[in-house]
Each structure stands twice: as structure tokens, then as C-alpha cells.
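=== RUN LOG ===
request id: a7f3
mode: sequence -> structure
chains: 1
length: 311
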Amino acid sequence: MVEQSVNAARRSSFVILSLSTAALTLGLIVFGAVVRVTDSGMGCGTDWPLCNGAVFPPLENITAWIEWLHRLFALLIGFFGLAMLIAAWRQYRHSDRRVLHMAAAAAILFIVQSALGAIVVFLELPPTFVTLHLGVAMLLLAALLGAAVMAWYQPLPLQHADSIPMFAVANAAMAFLVILTGALVRGSGATLACTAWPFCDGGAILPFEQGQLAVINMIHRLSVAAMSVTLLILLRLVYRHRTDALVKRIALGATLAHVIQIAAGALFVLSAAGREWGAIHVGLAAIVWGLLVTLALIEIMNRQSVELKTR
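=== RESULT ===
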């Protein structure tokens, strides 16, 4: 009994540490959006990890401080991630190695993310690497949430396997695509290539005659529209075929966050790239992604429990 209580306490501590690291990563993603919308990406010049050749930027240089604080935030997450990896090794290397693998994946992704951050600075914000930088940040968030879910969630018995797990995975993939296309819009300078909403200027859906940037902008909007359809279908399936209140709440939360994200994106365009709406838009995209990753993992774990029982 005492040993079970100790194991439960350790599991709870690990879950709290994982979720705290995930929350910090979400904050870092939003902070990264602030760096982008304030044009602070080159605030420290092409130096990394130093800032314009110094450890601390000048007090009067606001853009340098924004970029420097973003790097400091990332360093803090590195310490949290290291503590999480050590805890996963101690607690799960002999029991549930999936948790350890997720923690190790998060550590690797953090290293890749840091390297990409340096490359983005050295190459002066090339769109491709800016997009990769955000994409890896989202994968890091997913790995951290995955470690927490696998350590905490106990699969529920389902009567039979169905297509909802794979549909949840498909929606998570769609959310990732939306994020990547959005990062490409920002990184390529296509933010205001279409000043109207929801279509491009003149009501164009694929505005080839308005240039490449307008097409990039509309591809992002079309990916959002496609995801809206698939997400509504997922929500309907969950409410029809699932009794777990947690699963329903996650699906509903992802849908509501997606709707608000669309509104923030529209306001970002209609306000001529208002900085606050840009940061909110990216933050909501990360929340939608995180919720859908969590939902997909829970559904996969439940499906695996059904498959094990039927063998």
C-alpha cells in the first residue's frame, strides 16, 4: 500500500512537471509570435547566443530585449526538460518505456529547435527555416503532452474499435498543416497580400493573377477551411459514439478554440496586421494543436486496449 502511494505520488509529480514544461513551451510559442509581429527577430543581430556581441542588450534597445528574453525563456524550458528527462529515466525505464521515449523525443526536439533558432538568426530569417522553427516547436509541445498523457491516462474499455482515433490523428495533422502554412505566410511576407477576408482581394479564391504571396495567403486560408469541416465531423462523431466526458470536452474545446482562432486571424488581416491579434492567432493555433494531439493520443490508447482484449 505504501509503495503504491509512493508510485502514485511520483506519477503525479511527473505529470505536473510535464504539463508545466508544456505550458512553458506554449508560452514560448506565443513569445515567438510576439518576436515576429514586433519585427524583433534580428534584434540581436546575427549573434547567437550573444546579443549584438554582448551578454545583455542595451536598455534602450526594445527589439533586442524582446529577442533576448525569448532566448532566455527557451533556456528555462531546457532546464525543465532536463529535469523531466531525468525523472522519466528514474521512474519509467523499467515500467512504461513509452513515457521515457516521449521524454527523450522532447529532449531531442528541444536541441533541434535551439539549433534552428540559431540558424534562423545566422541566415537572417529565411522563410523556410522560420517555418521549420515553428513546426519543431509544435512537435516539442506534442511530445511533452504525449509524455504527460501516457503517464497519467488510464485507457477506458471501449465496446469495439472504430475510426475515431484515426480521424483524430487526421485532424491533428490538419492542425499542423495549418500552422506550417501560417508560418510560411508570415515568414514570406504574405501577411497582407490579401487585405480582404475571407477571400482575397476582389473575391478571388486562388488569386494567381495577384502574385505568389497572395496565393500563399489563400492556401493558408483554404487549409483552415478544410480543417474546419473535418473538425466539425470529428466533434459530431465524438458526441455520438463516446461516453467519456473528458474526450467530449477536449473535442469541444479544440473546436471552440479553432473558431476563436479564425476570428483572430480575420481581425489580424482587417486590422492591417495588428500585433496583438497576430500573437493571439498563433497562441490559439498552438492550443488547438495541443488539444487535438491529446485527443488523438487518448483515442489511440483506448483503441489499443480494445485490440489487446480481442487477441
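=== NOTES ===
The mean pLDDT is 89.
Residues 2-37 form the longest helix (36 residues).
=== END ===
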